[in-house]
Amino acid sequence: MERSSVSVLSQLVFLVFLIGYATATTTTTTMKGGGRKEMRHSGFLYTRNRGRCTPQFWSSRREAWPRMIPQTASVSRIFGSRAFERYRNDLTLLQATEKNDDNNAFSSLLKQSSAALLNSYTRKNFPFSAWEVKTLLIQALVSEKAAALQAKRFSLANEACT
Questions:
Q1: Residue 50 CB: number of other CB atoms within 10 A?
Q2: CA 11 from chain center: how many Å?
Q3: For the chain, which residues make up each domain, given as ranges?
Q4: How many Å apart are CA 39 and CA 49, to the nearest integer?
Q5: Which of 68, 85, 67 is nearest to 76 (CA)?
Q6: Label partner for 106 (CA 20 to 30 A): which of 6, 45, 134, 161?
Q7: Which residues constitute the signal peptide according to the record (predicted)?
């Protein structure tokens, strides 16, 4: 009888382990800003750091911003007069990285460009230099299609960055 209770206990422990593992590896989260859901594999067998270069990362203030770009700097001051025409003159880069209206191509462009600019200053192997980010943002302001396309390019670079 004692042997069977040990067997049942070991089976229960194994079952609790499996339930805990399944729960830890299939956590669904809502991303700040994006509103989309993603599966995160955060268990004891597999962990991965993602999003170290995304706008969400920069808006969380987990890493110091480069001195060349203070968080309180206005978008128009950093990106120039064309950005002043498109965006509010009091909008800061921090607010730009926090934007949630990704359905708007120009808003998404600003959000991804701001993160790309920060990455260009802080990430050694980032594919764009600071002047390229600024130039590409200004060039993409000509149309909604151009803005959406450039926002996607910056987004891919920001996601691939380490």
A1: 11
A2: 42
A3: 1-48, 49-160
A4: 13
A5: 85
A6: 161
A7: 1-24
Q: Rounded distance, CA 142 to CA 139, Å? A: 6
Select from 72, 118, 110 the least CA-distant residue to 94.
Answer: 72
d(CA 40, CA 58) in angstroms, rounded, equals 20
Q: How far apart are CA 39 and CA 37, in angstroms?
A: 7
- Residue 30: pLDDT band by 50, 70, 90 thresholds? very low
How does pLDDT run across 66-75, given as a tens digit for each residue? 888 888 899 9
| DSSP letter for each residue of 47-91 | -----TTSHHHHHTT-SPPPTTS-TT-BHHHHH-HHHHHHS-TT-
Q: How high is the mean pLDDT of the chain?
A: 79
pTM of the model: 0.66
Structure tokens at 32: 């700040």
Residue 84 pLDDT level (bands cut at 50, 70, 90): confident
Task: Let me know if 14 is exposed, middle or buried by CB neighbors in 10 A (0-12, 13-18, 19+).
Answer: exposed
User: Going by C-beta distance under 8 Å and a sequence separation of 6 or more, which residues neighbour residue 67?
Assistant: none
